[in-house]
Amino acid sequence: xxxxxxxxxxxxxxxxxxxxxxxxxxxxxxxxxxxxxxxxxxxxxxxxxxxxxxxxxxxxxxxxxxxxxxxxxxxxxxxxxxxxxxxxxxxxxxxxxxxxxxxxxxxxxxxxxxxxxxxxxxxxxxxxxxxxxxxxxxxxxxxxxxxxxxxxxxxxxxxxxxxxxxxxxxxxxxxxxxxxxxxxxxxxxxxxxxxxxxxxxxxxxxxxxxxxxxxxxxxxxxxxxxxxxxxxxxxxxxxxxxxxxxxxxxxxxxxxxxxxxxxxxxxxxxxxxxxxxxxxxxxxxxxxxxxxxxxxxxxxxxxxxxxxxxxxxxxxxxxxxxxxxxxxxxxxxxxxxxxxxxxxxxxxxxxxxxxxxxxxxxxxxxxxxxxxxxxxxxxxxxxxx
Length: 385
Ligand code: PLP
Fold this sequence. Notes:
Elements: E1 4-5, H1 16-28, H2 38-58, E2 65-68, H3 71-85, E3 90-93, H4 99-111, E4 115-118, H5 129-137, E5 143-146, H6 160-169, E6 173-176, E7 196-200, E8 211-215, H7 241-256, H8 258-279, E9 284-285, E10 299-304, H9 311-317, E11 320-321, E12 326-327, E13 333-334, H10 337-342, H11 345-350, E14 352-357, H12 364-384
Parallel strand pairs: 1-11, 3-4, 3-5, 5-6, 6-7
Antiparallel strand pairs: 2-8, 7-8, 9-10, 10-14, 12-13
Helix pairs in contact: 1-7, 2-7, 3-4, 5-6, 8-12
The protein binds pyridoxal-5'-phosphate.
């Protein structure tokens, strides 16, 4: 059976070169980076070379990169430590953030008495920048703005320039969850007024279980995980040396091939939109995901013109992996909160959302297979009604 993987916003297959460099590292570098003997120093050197490589690609200093276990940990670390150590008493966020931000912010609200304000959204699921400015203006409490760079479900891109300018004007700290965008867009963090960003290697053809947090160096930040004082005291625990080496390689490849891969994926996304419109009358797209200027090019959130809670299962039977938003243990899917915020109840009732997310490994043949299968499912629904 033809296998088609179109769930790259969930995770990506690892590049062969990343697997090779990690395998070599596993075979040869087994010292603990904290050990003072030569084997430890070798492991430490691998860590620091990786940090330097990543820092250079973002045009920041190596000390601004803190290795973590994933995007979730990076976002937790940034939000929690901003409250614990930077005197933040107010957080501005949105209802479309990834759960690891929303849950952490809610915990700060409930257990730490932090004022949390959720910015208004436009009907397409973008931040209402006027509302953001009014909220920023309304108080001089020490504020952290945490808004994601690109939404992982509908792909809407944040106007980072605008938000950083507002944060600067109103003296707020700015965290943007860049898990879906680092390595997909060129970013010179030395020129941007972002205080914190986050990365997860498995979203860019690197290994799972490793990521990093970017913490602007002027900030007196402190750790959430204490112990042996690794990562210059910012995150204790013996480091994931192989993971870090793999992440640095994946990140380097992502930046080197960025233009080539972006152009390939944009053509593929455009081809997908065209084929879907041709073969499935009435098909629409959620959020801004079909707008090439305003959305993440790797994501297309499709609204199928029929209700089918088992669509993921049916696609899987034909070898296709896409995402339905939120999974449910029964195999059927519930409509995600992100989709609920961009669609009215009647539309949700008569349509089915699926998220198609691309990588450099996808081809037009993958799309042809997907569209053919969706066309058959659509025809089955037309006959049934
Ligand atoms: N933030 C966003 C926008 C994501 O899409 C994800 C993962 O889907 C995360 C954070 C969490 O990253 P991780 O899977 O590395 O914990």
